[in-house]
Model the fold of this input.
Amino acid sequence: LDEAGVPSLASRSHRRHRPHVTFAIASSIPARTRKDLAGELRLLSLPALWLYTLGTFPTQENALFLGAVTDAEVLAVHSAVHDVLAGKVRDPWAYYLPGAWVPHCALAQDLDVAQLAAGFAAVHPIEPIRARIAAVGVTDTRTGETELLS
Done:
C-alpha cells in the first residue's frame, strides 16, 4: 500500500500498528469486566482466521480491509466476548455487536476515493491468508496501550 501511495495503518500510526481483528469496542471496559473476559477466554479454543475477502465499508471514512471467513468457531468466540461484556461496558459500538459485526483486519482507513481505488488495485487479487491469534487484549484507543488478556 505504501508503495502505491496509499497510507497504510502501519505508516500512519505514531505507534507500531499490529494487524488485528476487533471483536468489540466500548468507551469504557471496567477492570473487573476485563478480568472476567480473561477468565472466559482461557476456557475457549481460539480459532485460526482465514482472511479471504478484500473489502471496504460503505461509510465516509473509507477503509480497506481483509475480511475474515465467518465460521461457527469465530462466531462462538465473538458471542462469548459479548456475553461477558453485556451490560457491563459503556457505549458499546453497534457495528461490533452480534448480528452486525464484520470480522476483518484493517489495512488502511480515512482514505479519499482515489486512495481507496489505488489501494484496492495495489493489493488485488489477494491469496487467502491463514492467521493465528497470537494474543488477545484490550487496547486503550487514546494511548495505544494494550492490556493482554491471554
Summary: DSSP finds four helices and six strands in the chain. The two ends are 31 Å apart (CA to CA). Residues 72-85 form the longest helix (14 residues).
